[in-house]
Structures are given as structure tokens and as C-alpha cells.
Amino acid sequence: MMGLEQKDWPLMFELTNKVLGSGDPEYQTDIPEAERGTGAAARLTAMTGFATMFAYFRERLEERRANPRENDLITLLLESEIDGEKLSEGDLLAFCFLLIVAGNETTRNAISGGLQVLCEHPEEKAKLLKDMSLLDSAIEEILRWVSPVHHMARTVTADVEIRGKTLKAGDRLIMWYPSVNRDEEMFVDPYRFDITRTPNDHLAFGIGEHFCLGSGFAKKELKVMFQELFRRFPDIDLAGPPERLRSNFINGVKHLPVKFTPER
């Protein structure tokens, strides 16, 4: 969708891991091994990822200015106007960065986390394999259960009281998505994984003006992936414990060993 050459896709994967998995020693490849796992290593890894990503997209922006493309998000951003003004260079780079990082990290972790939870609940997996029309509701339950983003920070804009707690304008607060998606007042038996759950008003994509721009596309990705995965490998199962990303922001799975019968 962004028109990036396929040869650059592995680089986008690598840099996304550096930025969002900066605290994980596995992705601190630019740091001497003896220093990995420290706060300084995490900060340097994130800065390296940011700088390399922004430099890459600065080149892509120059290319599109010289040779605009149709159906290309980078060209679209360059041509967009708000109240008659073009986006600034900083805004353009931030948009490109957001679309690449948020557009791949969350979706791939929802897929891997979804496969993990389905394998850990074989009765639900069997129910889905028997009736793939349940896939849409299964995806909603996967999103609720996995909650690929742990939290997001917000700044209070006006004094308000919520359940006896006074919040002042300017206060910073953290919204924990795994917690809200297991709210006993919103979900019946919230700690039960149920692919037929309805209603399922989870907040994995946020809410209001901050609702995820790519939510519809993300659901389509998950749907196509699980349709094809279970069509080809219906007996896929875990072959060992998952190795999780060391992060308090992304609920990520780095490595998920599986076993299955190959296609014939």
C-alpha cells in the first residue's frame, strides 16, 4: 500500500523490531553483547531504529516528489492538504513511520497470539475448524484476548471526576488495554476465551477520535491469514512454549514453535 520495494520489507521488519522491541536484547544488535539488556542499550537501539527509518523515508519522499505514483500512500500524503496547507516534512515522516510500525507490529502479534490461544483452547479451535463462518467473531475474541498493545498514555484536558477519583487538567494517565478488555462489568466471564462471544465491545483498537485508522484492514489480514492457515494446516499445534518480546508496551510473540502435517 505504501509502494515500498519488496527488497526493503525485511529492513522494515528489522527496524520495527528495534523501535518497539528496543528493550529486548535480541534486537540490540548494534550494542556490544556485554552491554545488552540495559536501559542505555534500549535507548540507543530505539534511537538507531528511529533515525534509520526516518532517513529511509526521507529518501522515499524525495523519490515520490520527483515521480509521483498512483494508489500510493506516500504520494497521497505528499499531495494532501489541511486547510489549504501541505503537510510539513516532520508530519510526512511521522505518518510514514506510524503506518509502517503500527501497521505491521500489532497485526503480526495478533496473528501469532491468536494462533497461540486457539491452540491452548483446542475445543474452541475445533469449533472454528468445524464452522469457519465463526471466524469473524473469533477474530474479535482474539483481539480482546491478545490486546497487542499493552497500554497508551493520554493527557487529561479538563478537570474531571471518574468513580470518585479526581483527575486534573494536565495529569498523565495510562490506559491498560488487557485490563479493560477483561472488565467484569462489560464482559460475562471475561477470563474465558469464547470465539462466539457477543456482544464483544473490546477496546483493542482504542475508542473515539483515537480509534485505529487501520482496524478494518487489520481484521481483513487476520481473517485471510487464518482462513489460509487452517485450510492448509488444520492440525497445526504448538510444539513448545512461545518466546515473548521483552516489552511493557507491545504484547508480542518473537518465536512460536509449531508442528503440523505438511501439505501433499
- In what order do the strands lie side by side in the largest sheet? 1-2
What's the number of helices?
8
Mean pLDDT across all amino acids = 96
CATH class categorisation = Mainly Alpha
Largest sheet: 2 strands, antiparallel
Query: Which oligomeric state applies?
Result: single chain
Class derived from helix and strand content: mainly alpha
What is the terminal-to-terminal distance? 33 Å
DSSP helix fraction:
40-55%
The helix/strand order is HHHEEHHHEEEEHHEEEE
Count of DSSP strands: 10
Query: How much of the polypeptide forms β-strand, as a percent range?
Result: 5-15%
User: What is the CATH architecture term?
Assistant: Orthogonal Bundle
Give the overall silhouette. Answer: globular
CATH superfamily: Cytochrome P450
Any idea of the CATH topology? Cytochrome p450
Q: List low-pLDDT spans.
A: none
